[in-house]
Amino acid sequence: MNMIASLGKIAIAFVRETGRMGIFIKDIFRWMMMPPYRFNAAIEQMMEVGVLSFPVVMFTAIFTGMVLSLQTYTGFQRFGAQSMVGTVVALSMTRELGPVLTGLIVAGRAGSSMTASLGTMRVTEQIDALYTLAANPVKYLVVPRVIAGVIMLPILVCLSDIIGMVGGYAVSVFSLDANPVTYMQRSFDFLEFKDVFSGLVKAAAFGLIISVIGCYYGFYTEGGAEGVGKATTRSVVVAFLMIFVANYLLTALFFSEQGGKFDPRGKSLQSFRRQTGAPRRQPSLR
Amino acid sequence: MLRGANLHCAKGESMVIIGGSGTGKSVMIKHMIGLLTPDSGTVTVAGKVVSELTERELNELRKKFGMLFQGAALFDSLTVGENVGFALREHTTLSETKIRERVAERLRMVGMPGIENLMPAELSGGMKKRVGLARAIAMDPEIILFDEPTTGLDPVMADVINDLIIKTTRALSVTSVTITHDMVSANRIADKIAMLYEGKIVAVGTPDEIMFHQTNPAVKEFVEIGRIIRQTEAVQGRDKSGVAHR
What is the DSSP string of B117-143? Predict the structure, then answer.
């Protein structure tokens, strides 16, 4: 009986939380459309989410590119495909590593800051004070943060992609003695618009996830300073999980027509054959 | 939390709601301004049922209110001047000069002139309460709600805040509702006192009736304990100031 009661409680809590989140998201979009628009607040948040996150994003991207280059080189050397290092770095950074790593960094840095800041405002009654001053806190506090997240994440990812590729180039050319011209050629020969575009769409989605989750947990914080700490931890964990789930779903959406396989009819492979003179039956990369 | 609480506050009256911690005083005041919605029953302000108002109507009603929160609830990221002028900038078409003048005037009224450029973090508890009061009266409200205005302050500062509440509410001719567990404060600022106990209003009367002519045991006990605590605090305050002067 106790177990059934516990399950019931969990189900009720889940439904309540989901419903509250749904209403919160609806409110965000409703207030986003309604004037007056608070451009200055959005720009302030863009500074917080984008500009102040940039050094960490840059650091992560450059070392990710460098490690990727090193790992790929040592792996590809076994079957003589070192010339493809630039391609792997470029595709990995634009499609996956740039968006996901940037998303995780921003969730940890800016998302947690959103929760802590709104949570503190909630427990010190500043959010209630906004209501009593006839100002809607979703419009004043949440909408600028969501706009900043959705706009700044793609910009950060763009920069992260470039920096990661530069890191890969640096290691390949200066440490592994790769030919700089070949490296650059290979980097861009197989890179399609869709690769970059899918990464940027993912980034915008991650920006939305981070800001909505960060604001949601802050907005509904309870339990004083301890509650703020718990809400911040929860928001970062949930944002991380949602980023991984959304990443899979968006990847499946963008690249589902290839079924996740190395499609011999694909444009990229034909281009690969043209560039390298490889036979029709390509040896497996396993 | 509130179960059958029934209270009427007349226009221009200073109503103080007393009661122990966790009896629902804050819940009651939050219902009045629409921060909480009742599960059943109604809260009527100026003839309008608060829970039946649309968001726009509720915001219009809220413009008639000023509220001083227990911790003042000043916006951390804004200066004192921006805090006090917040509603003026959001809801009026006053020029920036006029807004600055009004802010300066309200800060003078609460005895804190010339601190517009300070940040809330630079203020003491008592100063924050005064700035909170200046923000609450910035829009010339018709009703002011005070949530535990003297809690967390030493007896001297509590008296200063009580004086300020009396002075400003009289100067602006407003209706005020105060919740407190400080009996001295209640006695000083109230036209009427209501006692909230176990979710109900168990007694309403003038300060004299509540303090000295009550038969309800819960009210009598609360008043007596409140008096003892305040006397102890006053003695401790005198001792501390005596040591400091020596």
Answer: T--GGGS-HHHHHHHHHHHHTTT--SE
